[in-house]
Amino acid sequence: MRAVRGPTAAAPRRSFPVTKQVKQLDRVVIRFAGDSGDGMQLTGDRFTSETATFGNDLSTLPNFPAEIRAPAGTLPGVSSFQLHFADHDILTPGDAPTVLVAMNPAALKANIRDLPRGAEIIVNTDEFSKRAMAKVGYPTSPLEDGSLDAYNVHAIPLTTLTVGALAEFEISKKDAERAKNMFALGLLSWLYHRPTEATVDFLRRKFAKLPVIAEANVAAFKAGWNFGETTDDFAVSYEVAPAKLPSGTYRNITGNLALSYGLVAAGQLAELPVYLGSYPITPASDILHELAKHKNFGVRTFQAEDEIAGIGAALGASFGGALGVTTTSGPGVALKSETIGLAVSLELPLLIVDVQRGGPSTGLPTKTEQSDLLQAMFGRNGEAPVPIVAPQTPSDCFAAAVEAARIALKYRTPVFLLSDGYLANGSEPWRLPETSELPDLRVAFATEPNQENADGTKEFWPYKRDPETLARPWAVPGTPGLEHRIGGIEKADGIGSISYDPANHDLMVRTRQAKVDGIAKDIDPLWVDDATGDAKVLVIGWGSTYGPIAAAVRRVRAAGGKVAQAHLRHLNPFPANTAEVLRSYDKVIVPEMNLGQLALLLRGRFLVDAMSYNQVRGLPFKSEELAHVIREVIESV
Amino acid sequence: MSESANGAGGFPSLTLIPKADAKQSMKDFKSDQEVRWCPGCGDYAILAAVQGFLPELGLRKENVVWISGIGCSSRFPYYLNTYGMHSIHGRAPAIATGLATSREDLSVWVVTGDGDALSIGGNHLIHALRRNVNLKILLFNNRIYGLTKGQYSPTSETGKITKSTPMGSLDHPFNPLSVAIGAEASFVARSIDSDRKHLTSVLRAAAAHEGTALVEIYQNCNIFNDGAFEQLKDPAQRDDVTIRLEHGQPIRFGAEGQYGVIRGAHGALDVAEVAKVGEDAVLVHDAHADNPELAFALTRLGDLTSNTHTPIGVFRDIARPVYDRLMSAQMAEAATKQGQGDLASLIRGNDTWTID
């Protein structure tokens, strides 16, 4: 049970009772937009947290520039945060906002094209000076020239109201103005009946060392709420009932946080210390920051001098019996390639977490893309197969990290975990797993010689494999009698000493490949959602496109269309039944945020005429757009 | 495990490493692999010195790890019956850092060369040195690329004629020990492949040092750069060109100790006849001085081409906090302050709701 509560303490009494209408909605998409310095990410985070606490299903899409403080008031400097919340389960942050909060002309201009007619726009009129409008190319004020007639505009002097509300506080005008995002948050919290205590607590915690600033922000937040309740501008407020999600305990979580917890969990489940060697890179750095907080789980974090040293240290730790992990994004993977190849040759467990971003080169550091699949698959010299696991939603990053660790430890191999910028920063409610449900990842280190010679003497052969998994023994330094040397030079099968023998190399190359291919027997088959069982079109994806694809499939089905959906968690090896699934449909559509990398693999591996649908705009697909594509293909069959 | 309160030989750097139950000999550290360096290579002498020295540490050999990069010298781990990794070009210090910072019970040694450590792996070397991880780095300097068959290296003298520089190399060389001191190294030493006694004494000092120790070993490549250090080996002239550094001792050299290192004009080091300048003018070596000025100045003595006035021995050996110990201290502090981690409460966080 949850009551909708307004601010408690210090809420000014209203002089006149105002009766306002309350409307029920099933879902809302809000986008907060402002300058990079306006605190829009924080505002969005808080609204998300209130919404999660309230019990709606939700999905978020932060979108910010790579510059820390881009020039004020410019289009490239606009930072936004989109939140979709609903009384039912949802899959995406929403195609188009139904509400836009624009803190300045640049925020309005940068986002207006995404708004459907009839959307609500809340603008901060204080920022609509002639100069500020001219800076982004508004010759006349859009608030006055009729260009926003199709929308429901609430023109509010947010800055003035905030400064006025904080007149009694002994703070600078600048500090008072900076609290305008909390005024806006208060107003939106009123408008959508969000619970507010947690935000008040949050502000007091955040500014614990500056109590005056804390109280000023709380006051601005409450003033925003009260403004909503008293102003005539908002005649209606909205309720979105809690969603009926599967029973359980939930929290809201971003992909990077879920992934970090997955790594901590993997260490606990394997009863091994986790060693993260990493170099800061957007959008992966938050994983390093998070793991650095959890030393009490036996997690060591090492910020290396470069990407190469980051993975080198992780591999060194793996040699010593730790679960070595490195976290990075595409450019970092390029630098780590040689060490990944060494890990393939050494056959030691290692996790390479690639939080993909727009490429090539520096590309779009803060935007999402799925264009490292082929780099993960093939980006090394020689035949160097590496298993690949991809999470499909922010909270799924937890389970995917555990699965990647399972494969790495069991098969003694480096494993790629391919997240992306959208998963990393986006958030959603997560039904917490019971720790007893999590897999047992414990491994046995080698303790005894494993080879008996003809003369009865015993030896340790570092490349004598488990016949089932083809994994080699993991003998860590400190184990008496198992001293051995390994390296990147080709090794003789079994005994592991240097070998340039042609037949041996052929055998070793094929064996390493067979080991990775054999993982297909040990992963879940590809599951197909074919509701009616007679769809002729399959749409298949991987990674973060799960939400938009599933939402598109729902739309198509809602209109009577028949389409099947499958989503790959394992990209190398593919699940054993992949060929069978693909061949069961007349048409196979592969939407990807790249130029067709999975499609290339599916066509090459399975000789199916997979059709690519691609976008590389740094943003997730819109589900309506995918639904349109699916409908067209269905009609063509 | 037989752990004595002190490290082997009283070395505080080795206190955390398990000790051998019985006395060891050189053959305990020889692997069964056939050594494949070119006949006459200086690496053989270094290998023999190391195999002869390791028993002195009295460590369990399973707790000793040798990690190398790529190059002739990097084959070293194959010939030692300890744990070992022959890794990739230039990256051994990074890999060894991960191992050493996660396993304090191991004695971790890195073998590298002038190309491996100073060219492709320069970044890892300087950062290992400034962090002061408990690593011992042996840098075999032969002033040439041997494994790729004879190109000039970052320590080759300018104008060197090689296959890749038929008109002479244009690069100004690095002085590895100057680089190391510039990178905040806490232990810097130099020795010579053929002087087993001296090399062993330097290895002993490096092993005793807490933190990263860099030992440059002048090593002759008899195929591609033969005689690079001949003046330091030739009995007829070696005493007059080699300056043997000993902590706390006047820096004198020459067959009769007739030369000394003094402060010359503008404070720069100079070499003089002791008889002319007087014994009091001769500098006393202080490897433990926190200020690196003298140690650095000593690295600048010596001529790369003629090898005249080449100091060998321990230039610098100072106490500085060791990275892996600091890391472990933070781990322990976190466990004390936060308590042992509980996974269920971690993933739960502070803000949950329940749906029935």
TrEMBL record, chain A:
Q: Where is the Pyruvate:ferredoxin oxidoreductase core domain?
A: 535-598
Q: Which UniProt keywords apply?
A: Oxidoreductase
The record's GO molecular-function terms, alphabetically, read: magnesium ion binding; oxidoreductase activity, acting on the aldehyde or oxo group of donors
UniProt domain Pyruvate/ketoisovalerate oxidoreductase catalytic: residue ranges: 37-224
Identify the InterPro entries for this entry.
2-oxoacid/accept_OxRdtase_asu, PFOR_II, Pyruvate:ferred/Flavod_OxRd, Pyrv/ketoisovalerate_OxRed_cat, Pyrv_Fd/Flavodoxin_OxRdtase_N, Pyrv_flavodox_OxRed_cen, THDP-binding, Transketo_C/PFOR_II
Q: Name one GO biological process term.
A: response to oxidative stress
Q: Where is the Pyruvate flavodoxin/ferredoxin oxidoreductase pyrimidine binding domain?
A: 277-493
Record-linked PANTHER family:
2-OXOGLUTARATE OXIDOREDUCTASE SUBUNIT KORA, PYRUVATE-FLAVODOXIN OXIDOREDUCTASE-RELATED
Q: What is this protein called?
A: 2-oxoglutarate ferredoxin oxidoreductase subunit alpha
| Species | Embleya scabrispora
From TrEMBL, chain B:
Please give the Pfam families that the UniProt record associates with this protein: TPP_enzyme_C (PF02775)
Gene3D superfamilies in the record: 3.40.50.970
Q: Keywords in UniProt for this one? A: Oxidoreductase
InterPro entries linked to this entry: 2-oxoacid:Fd_oxidoreductase, THDP-binding, TPP_enzyme_TPP-bd
Which residue numbers delimit the Thiamine pyrophosphate enzyme TPP-binding domain?
70-217
- Per the record, the domain of life is Bacteria
Q: Name one GO molecular function term.
A: oxidoreductase activity, acting on the aldehyde or oxo group of donors, iron-sulfur protein as acceptor
An example GO BP is: cellular respiration
Q: Which PANTHER family match?
A: 2-OXOGLUTARATE OXIDOREDUCTASE SUBUNIT KORB (PTHR48084:SF4), 2-OXOGLUTARATE OXIDOREDUCTASE SUBUNIT KORB-RELATED (PTHR48084)
Can you name this protein? 2-oxoacid:ferredoxin oxidoreductase subunit beta
